[in-house]
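Per your request, structure below.
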């Protein structure tokens, strides 16, 4: 089995008290608990509220579990409760009542972002101060890149790392990545639809046509609330073309971890650009919007065409996020007339790094001249990322060229520095 080591495992092992793991569905929460934490009891709460003992394979009612739980806590048993949010709200009070039991260990796992955020924001939250809250998201760009570099190299490494941040893809991946992705969507598109639907159900929201429309339009390149409002109004999904009416939807999608937002740099009034947090979901909704591929028979050739079209943009996002984490900077969007940057990273109050990503077989002299002219407008570090130096017809002036090998080294050095600093805490 292919396992990607994650820094979060160290944090979980380091903290010996009560823990709560939360995050979007299929981000590896249960896997982390099963393979990296010690436990004596493992309970899974079914959708109907019954509790499944995964070690004995017994099934019990909530009332039976309520009688069992206090005894296990008093016996200092290490207890895992997966999808605990499905239990009645009174269970939170029970947790609080027994949180004073010394040396007890309870590991709570939930796929609902809203519950975690509510517990974090409530002044008198039953779990506030008694549980170590850990968000489990997609795999860190640095971690997937360093680990996969043991198997594949060059262009394939970056493309595979871009999508294998989704833990559910890790075990099944076989190079080449583009063929693997094509096959995955051809056979498992309905699974991704069900994953999104389950996420909405768990969050307590209805997957309406407006939500679906937003996700499809974001996948189709619409990024601002103004662009999204116009697109949804033209499709008849909004009664008025009013960006303000979309804010509640965009806020919920962002809190659910489906969308992420970036600040537009240099604007007096705050303006944000929205994108899918997961390239896998972005590609899924692009295919849905273009071909309705989960409902209509869609050829492998059409799916492969979509993969080839979307992949370079996803690679740009991966590289920008990788460099942001490696250098401790924040991604922003630069909005200037006739100028769009693939990579724009901001420090405390100024741009620190800008760059272009050219994920293609050949970068010609004229294109390099335009890149030099564009990046020369910024007084900061300037980079050009390419799959290999061989694709360049000449060396760019005043710009640092980064290849997959350079990115691996940047990721490795950043991880080593981070792990060292965490070990010294």
């Amino acid at each position: 089995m292919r396992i990607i080591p994650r820094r979060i495992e160290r944090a979980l092992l380091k903290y010996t008290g009560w823990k709560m793991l939360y995050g979007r569905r299929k981000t590896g929460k249960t896997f982390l608990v099963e393979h990296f934490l010690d436990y004596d009891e493992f309970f899974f709460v079914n959708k109907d509220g019954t509790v499944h003992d995964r070690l004995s394979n017994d099934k019990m009612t909530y009332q039976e579990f309520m009688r069992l739980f206090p005894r296990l806590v008093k016996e200092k048993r290490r207890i895992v409760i997966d999808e605990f949010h499905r239990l009645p709200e009174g269970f939170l009070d029970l947790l609080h009542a027994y949180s004073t039991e010394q040396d007890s260990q309870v590991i709570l796992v939930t796929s609902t972002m809203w519950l975690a955020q509510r517990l974090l924001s409530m002044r008198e939250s039953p779990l506030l101060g008694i549980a170590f809250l850990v968000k489990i998201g997609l795999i860190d760009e640095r971690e997937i890149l360093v680990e996969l570099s043991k198997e594949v190299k060059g262009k394939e490494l970056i493309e595979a790392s871009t999508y294998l941040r989704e833990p559910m893809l890790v075990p099944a991946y076989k190079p080449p990545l583009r063929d693997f992705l094509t096959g995955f969507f051809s056979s498992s598109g309905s699974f991704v639809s069900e994953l999104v639907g389950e996420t909405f159900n768990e969050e307590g929201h209805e997957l309406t046509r407006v939500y679906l429309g937003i996700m499809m339009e974001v996948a189709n390149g619409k990024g601002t609330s103004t662009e999204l409002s116009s697109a949804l109004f033209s499709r008849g999904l909004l009664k008025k073309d009013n960006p303000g009416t979309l804010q509640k939807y965009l806020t919920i999608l962002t809190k659910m971890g489906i969308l992420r937002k970036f600040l537009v740099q240099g604007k007096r009034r705050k303006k944000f650009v929205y994108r899918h947090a997961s390239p896998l979901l972005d590609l899924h909704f692009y295919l849905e919007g273009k071909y309705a591929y989960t409902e209509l028979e869609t050829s492998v050739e059409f799916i492969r065409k979509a993969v080839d079209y979307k992949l370079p943009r996803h690679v740009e996002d991966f590289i920008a996020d990788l460099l942001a984490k490696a250098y401790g900077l924040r991604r922003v969007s630069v909005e200037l007339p006739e100028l769009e940057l693939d990579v724009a990273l901001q420090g405390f109050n100024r741009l620190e790094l800008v760059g272009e990503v050219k994920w293609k077989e050949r970068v010609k002299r004229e294109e390099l001249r335009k890149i030099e002219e564009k990046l020369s407008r910024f007084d900061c570090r300037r980079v050009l990322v390419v799959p290999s130096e061989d694709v360049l017809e000449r060396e760019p002036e005043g710009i640092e060229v980064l290849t997959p090998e350079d990115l691996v080294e940047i990721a490795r050095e950043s991880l080593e520095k981070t792990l060292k600093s965490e070990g010294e805490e």
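The first strand starts at residue 19 and ends at 22.

Regards,
D.
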